Amino acid sequence: MNKETHYTVIGAGHGGKAMAAHLALMGFPVTLYNRTPEHVAVIKARGGIELKSYNGGPYGFGDLALVTSDIGAALEQAEVIMVVVPSTGHADIAHSVAPHLRDGQIVLLNPGRTGGALEFAHVLSECDCQADVTVAEAETLIYASRSEGPAQARIFRIKDAVPLAALPATRTPRVLEALSTAFPLFIDGTSVLHTSLNNMGAIFHPALTLLNAGRIESTGGEFQFYIDGVTPSVARILEALDRERVTVAASLGIRARTGVEWLRMAYDARGANLYEAIHNQPGYRGIKAPPTLNHRYITEDVPMSLVPIAALGQRYGVQVWGMDSIIRQACIVHQTDYWRRGRTLDKLGIMQLSVGEIMRYAMEGRNNKQ
Amino acid sequence: MNKETHYTVIGAGHGGKAMAAHLALMGFPVTLYNRTPEHVAVIKARGGIELKSYNGGPYGFGDLALVTSDIGAALEQAEVIMVVVPSTGHADIAHSVAPHLRDGQIVLLNPGRTGGALEFAHVLSECDCQADVTVAEAETLIYASRSEGPAQARIFRIKDAVPLAALPATRTPRVLEALSTAFPLFIDGTSVLHTSLNNMGAIFHPALTLLNAGRIESTGGEFQFYIDGVTPSVARILEALDRERVTVAASLGIRARTGVEWLRMAYDARGANLYEAIHNQPGYRGIKAPPTLNHRYITEDVPMSLVPIAALGQRYGVQVWGMDSIIRQACIVHQTDYWRRGRTLDKLGIMQLSVGEIMRYAMEGRNNKQ
Predict the structure, then answer these.
(1) What is this structure's pTM?
(2) What is the per-residue pLDDT across A247-298, written as a single tens digit (0 to 9) for each?
(3) In this complex, do A212 and B215 lie within 8 Å of one another by their Cβ atoms?
(4) Closest chain A CA to residue B335
(5) DSSP H or E stretch at residue B152
(6) Is A6 an annotated catalytic residue?
(7) Are B217 and A231 within 8 A, CB to CB?
(8) Distances (CA, A) of B324 to B18, B248, B297
(9) Max Cα distance, chain A (Å)
């Protein structure tokens, strides 16, 4: 049992605080980094985080080895670096850590959304980072959790199985091995293209938000997001987006899970189509809509999830009309260019690659590293 | 006073019944045509339509000269042919009337939506109709009205001023003159390109329906369509669509009214933007949302209003991303191709025309008629 593995958790939000406390309670030495010192001042003063959770789940005061806003200090002891920030921050984190990384360190994005590991590795390469680090991404965050105070966190649920993949995939076993004591729930996600293209939030979040835009803004989100928001017509649009995602994956030679398959796998929710399967998922009952359209369901999931999938489609000849229509409306609503801000193929460092070259890069790595 | 003008009203729906009864009560000889005899059987048996309306408005039993489902008989006496059917039916009507039209007859589409007169004239030409008829379109229906029984109609409001235009515009005065006794409210709409591009339903109806799709379907439309449905984000999308429409018009050399200008003109509703102006229009209070997405706000306004405006934009170099995103989602929701079903430029008979040629056609007519 390698209880000596030193973890550094980057990000002290809902997920980061829960993970840092959870790891500390399991007995690992943990450093918590947050860019803004004020956000972790109370944690630093108390020396840790108070964790609560569900019945039988982890709880107690998790003592942290170090709480810092100095990225160099944060990485000094780190063997595994858990990045738990919105994916819109991944590129910035990569820029910050690049000068401090050391051979053998593992960076895991929790989660990567779509193209997280590719973007992270591309930024490291652009920063001329020479350290032999392993960048990996998880398909989703392992927790449903919430921050309940400056030094408090609560875990509602820990998922049973979460796929992760390293870039290249030949290094996935190494990551799974390093994490196995703390998080045996991680499973092999095949490749970062698989984890990226199985990003279901890309399909559900932006479309569901836009097709309920009037209701969200006029009620402040006071309705059940999935139960009331997913009506037959809305579900038809989700189905169309989902079909586009699976087709983009197929164009890369990847068999992605359909939304219906994913709902069965993740929640044992069944149905002949997305409408039925979503309404057969009891966990969706009671989940409120976002209170405003200025929410990560658009601000994060459009540029970091939908844009990279649509960009892959455009590059490899798959019509992504539905995705494009959602992206455009999000651009109008937020008066910004989510295509420009988003993870297009140049930002993922795969602009010039053929399908075969992308797959080889994801599976085996670049032949000539540079 | 030419109270002898013989009107034929085509279509016995909400608008057609009100118009036929209103004209009859004004003393004009009126023929009412409906394709399906069952729909007008009661009117035929009673010999007319019972009209009710607002205080001081027209009311009483309007005796009809003829009620028929024989299009030849319907047109025999007609001097003015008022087409009062959904615009999705205009092409079919044109096919039916083509063999029966005579020199000097006037056909007015109430309303044309976008490209109604162009499409109608194109179908007549394709049917090799040699009669010298004048085809015109109104910008909106002059009534807010409802059918209240098989031979009953109610008018809630008659608009103050409704622009109309003939194709070519040189014939607009002739149409205004023929209609002046019955409907002095009609005013010169400049050209059919103007009436077509000032179609505000194209902007408001489909987007408002889609961006409230979840709420419409989960409540059956039990909310205020404009008051609850037009929130700041929804209004931003309406603004973007409106800007596209005005830009498409500008590419043809036409200064179209903006939505804000239209709300001020039509309702004296003011505001710095569409959100404010819509919420300052008391007439929108109490108007419920459509009960389902299977509604003319999509089934008619997408193919007959949005598609032709977007098609003009694509042809003359204007980006219509917002319109395109709405059209695509409508296609997905109704699992049909609204581009194929809609009024594209080939259906309007203007596919091969330059901007100058389109304007000349609308203003002066074709040099070589065929």
Answers:
(1) 0.89
(2) 999 999 999 999 999 999 888 899 999 999 999 999 899 899 999 999 999 9
(3) yes
(4) A236
(5) strand B152-158
(6) no
(7) yes
(8) 35, 13, 16
(9) 55
